[in-house]
């Protein structure tokens, strides 16, 4: 195994250890709290807060420790105009709609094929927790940590192999890390696009804000839209319900329209200050087909299958 495969294998094992650590920490904390006060783990709001702490805050030092010995490279900073940011926002929404459609289609097909009901963990979370908790944890806390985990720490260390390799690696790791088939596709697409934006600008704040907007749309705004749509279907709606559904539908149509237009500009995309320092003869094979990444993908594939069965 050459030195470059060893590098990506180390990255794969790093995120595998990080992922396993989050599971171990979560299990230990839940069991301890369950022994001390069983009522807490039965409260979905409390459970959501504890899960967020176990997934983001407690494992963060572990990832930092594992990554610190890997040399990093600062990206050249470039400011985004408001027009370009809004275009990126439309592309982000478009990728979310496409990814969600793929996820729903495939889970429905698998459910029909095996005769099982595959629950969407995101829907379960949104329907079981307080909306203000969703706003804080899913729409703000989650995006900040995830952009640091899967963009900042990862890309700063892989960009020497080129933007395309970093984008693909970020998309694959981010997609699998979600651990379920419902979220895999839009996490893969968004992970790749956020990686593109970070490499393009060198500023993680842009991807954090994009991530916050997309989670805000999915966890809070969509909740109001669905309730208003249900009111329309049951013929028990008011003027506010009509307005919410109309505005939400208009937002979807406009973002998809401008998002598709934005895709046409990617043929001219260039990455300032991120020239490939170490060109790879077989970039995909080198970055993905190595012991660390293979173990990472196998582990999370098992997690996804387990979540489908359970």
Fold and architecture overview:
The protein has 310 residues and is mainly alpha-helical. Helices cover 79% and strands 0% of the residues. It has 13 helices and no strands. It is globular. The mean pLDDT is 89.
Question: What keyword list fits this structure?
Answer:
310 residues, mainly alpha
What is this structure, in a nutshell?
By secondary structure, the chain is mostly helical.
How are the secondary structure elements laid out?
Blueprint: H1 3-36, H2 38-41, H3 44-57, H4 60-67, H5 82-114, H6 121-128, H7 131-158, H8 163-177, H9 181-201, H10 204-233, H11 239-263, H12 283-288, H13 291-309
First-to-last CA distance: 38 Å
- Poorly predicted ranges: none
**DSSP, total strands:** 0
User: Rg, please?
Assistant: 20 Å
Percent range for β-strand residues: under 5%
Secondary structure class reads mainly alpha
What share of the residues lie within helices? over 70%
- Envelope shape: globular
Total count of helical runs of at least 4 residues: 13
Note the main sheet: none
Mean pLDDT: 89
Helix-strand topology string: HHHHHHHHHHHHH
